[in-house]
């Protein structure tokens, strides 16, 4: 446990001292800052470009549009950045030899993998919460009646889904030596999950239901997310466990 | 007591047998040199000892603990330097030392004291630059320092001097020698001179097989097999070499650097050489300047054991 704390402290310090602090948080903050004004001015912009063509066709923007910008960015841009940034989390350490330096000390491989998951989760949750608060604050400027609840629900649902992707990519990074390969596994899983959502039961009972949930929750629509949330949490735990087991079996 | 013991240790990678039934013992308190040409299986052996790779067959133990199943207990008492040490480039040397110490749960103020002392020993005290900017030699010295952070009972060093300049090598070898009696040192190398300088026990590995194990003196005595004599003449070394080549006691000969009228001759029968040489010199009309028996070097032993068939 003590070595886990040391590894976690190292991983958090690494996030703060390297490019990791800029990539995913940077994209999250950019999404948060750009979303509300984009929602507020898209209709005006199109009207100015199209003249009378769009007159009367575009409804007045509301806070729903602002939150939709946020959830859309989370589900696309941030997901891709997260998967690509995390691909080398374990395989990269194996490649440059730091994992051997660490794992020839009294440190369990489980602790090594768990520290990666927890540090990434801390970064992700903290940056996403900051982004959510920025989105809410800026949305209030243009749409003072914007409720906080739908934004919180949408963000929480996405975070749960994102942690599942973190677990998938960590498993890939533990299993293959290439960071790009691990990212490919993560992207493949993401697209497979999106595709499987076409089939109703998958949407109702499995993590596939979490992929589209943030957009619906952000629009304050009635969505049944209990089972998708439960299965997402269970699958995340199973995948982290699998990453530990795979890494324990690998030669360094 | 033996600190390290392997029995019929075998490691197979596909069709390649990296280790082939290696049975080895490393006595407590020894400075043990693990010799072998590149690709002999030295690093594979060390990786198995450290639990980084499982053996295909056979067993390995450190402190009587199985290396496959009791990794943590072994690692708590071992210090290790890989052949190419990997560091987090954003950390300073001191930060890495403290991080390594925290993995051993070394309490304060012991951790700070050891960090300062070891960085001082490595010539890195006061260096606040990130490790990413270190030279290879600096990284190697930091690697040795971090391997000592837990005051290990066994220090395993994989090619610790290969990346260093002559002065750096001398420093590291002196440091290894200074550990004699305080901790057991197992270090792999293909640099025979380094092993000969500091090791009291040696094992030679070749193509995955343990060729020989013993003290350096034992190896010189029992596996030298031949003696090298240095012959220097006043003039006409070419004629002498031609005559010596024809003698049945001559195994091979090599010129002596910086002396154009001298040659080192490896002989398989010293008495026969002693008896024949005066006659040869008289027949050729050459004056003898020097006739010395040279000490059998570890290199002679190594070439004799490993060089055959290459």
TrEMBL record, chain A:
GO cellular component terms attached to this protein's record: plasma membrane
Gene Ontology molecular function, alphabetical: ABC-type transporter activity
* Family matches, as Pfam families: ABC2_membrane_2
Cited PANTHER family: INTEGRAL MEMBRANE PROTEIN-RELATED, MEMBRANE PROTEIN
Protein name in UniProt: Uncharacterized protein
Species source reads Tessaracoccus lapidicaptus
TrEMBL record, chain B:
Q: Give the matching Gene3D superfamilies.
A: P-loop containing nucleotide triphosphate hydrolases
Q: What CDD domains is this protein classified in?
A: ABC_DR_subfamily_A
What SMART domains is this protein classified in?
A: AAA
**Among its keywords, does the record have Nucleotide-binding?**
yes
User: By its UniProt entry, which Pfam families does this protein fall under?
Assistant: ABC_tran
The domain of life is Bacteria
Q: Which UniProt keywords apply?
A: ATP-binding, Nucleotide-binding, Transport
Q: Which GO terms describe its molecular function?
A: ATP binding; ATP hydrolysis activity
Q: Which PANTHER family match?
A: ABC TRANSPORTER, ATP-BINDING PROTEIN
Entry similarity comment: Belongs to the ABC transporter superfamily.
Protein name per its UniProtKB record: Uncharacterized protein
Organism annotation: Tessaracoccus lapidicaptus
């Amino acid at each position: 446990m003590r070595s886990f704390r040391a590894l976690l402290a190292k991983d958090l310090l690494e996030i703060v001292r390297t490019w990791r602090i800029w990539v995913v948080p940077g994209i999250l903050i950019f999404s948060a800052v750009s979303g509300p004004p984009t929602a507020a001015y898209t209709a005006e912009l199109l009207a100015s470009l199209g003249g009378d063509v769009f007159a009367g066709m575009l409804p007045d923007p509301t806070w729903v549009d602002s939150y939709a910008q946020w959830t859309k960015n989370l589900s696309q841009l941030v997901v891709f950045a997260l998967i690509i940034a995390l691909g080398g989390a374990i395989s990269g350490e194996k490649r440059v030899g730091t994992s051997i330096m660490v794992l020839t000390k009294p440190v369990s491989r489980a602790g090594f993998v768990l520290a990666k998951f927890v540090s990434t989760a801390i970064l992700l949750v903290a940056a996403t919460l900051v982004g959510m608060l920025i989105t809410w604050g800026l949305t209030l400027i243009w749409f003072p009646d914007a409720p906080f609840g739908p934004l919180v629900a949408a963000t929480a649902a996405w975070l749960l889904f994102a942690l599942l992707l973190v677990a998938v990519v960590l498993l890939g990074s533990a299993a293959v030596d290439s960071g790009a390969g691990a990212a490919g596994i993560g992207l493949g899983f993401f697209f497979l999950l999106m595709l499987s959502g076409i089939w109703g039961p998958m949407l109702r009972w499995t993590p596939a239901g979490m992929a589209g949930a943030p957009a619906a929750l952000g629009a304050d629509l009635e969505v049944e997310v209990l089972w998708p949330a439960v299965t997402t949490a269970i699958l995340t735990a199973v995948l982290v466990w699998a990453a530990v087991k795979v890494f324990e079996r690998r030669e360094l | 007591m033996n600190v390290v013991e392997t029995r019929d240790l075998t490691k197979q990678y596909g069709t390649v047998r990296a280790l082939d039934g290696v049975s080895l013992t490393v006595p407590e308190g020894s400075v043990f040199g693990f010799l072998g040409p590149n690709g002999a299986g030295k690093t594979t052996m060390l990786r198995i000892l450290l639990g980084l790779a499982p053996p295909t067959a056979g067993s390995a133990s450190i402190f009587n603990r199985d290396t496959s199943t009791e990794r943590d207990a072994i690692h708590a008492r071992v210090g290790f330097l890989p052949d190419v040490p990997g560091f987090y480039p954003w950390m300073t040397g001191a930060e890495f030392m403290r991080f390594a110490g925290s993995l051993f749960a070394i309490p304060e103020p012991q951790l700070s004291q050891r960090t300062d002392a070891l960085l001082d020993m490595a010539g890195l005290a006061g260096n606040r630059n990130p490790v990413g900017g270190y030279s290879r030699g600096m990284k190697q010295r930091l690697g040795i320092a971090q391997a000592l952070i837990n005051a290990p009972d066994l220090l395993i060093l994989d090619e610790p001097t290969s990346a260093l300049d002559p002065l750096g090598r001398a420093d590291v070898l002196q440091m290894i020698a200074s550990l004699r009696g305080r901790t057991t040192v197992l270090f792999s190398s293909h640099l025979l001179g380094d092993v000969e300088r500091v090791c009291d026990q040696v094992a030679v590995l070749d193509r995955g097989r343990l060729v020989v194990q013993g003290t350096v003196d034992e190896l010189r005595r029992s596996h030298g097999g031949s003696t090298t004599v240095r012959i220097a003449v006043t003039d006409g070394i070419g004629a002498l070499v031609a005559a010596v080549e024809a003698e049945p006691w001559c195994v091979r000969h090599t010129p002596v650097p910086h002396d154009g009228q001298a040659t080192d001759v490896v002989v398989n029968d010293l008495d026969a050489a002693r008896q024949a040489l005066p006659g040869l010199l008289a027949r050729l009309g050459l004056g003898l300047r020097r006739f010395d028996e040279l000490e059998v070097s570890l290199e002679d032993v190594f070439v004799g054991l490993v060089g055959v068939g290459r």
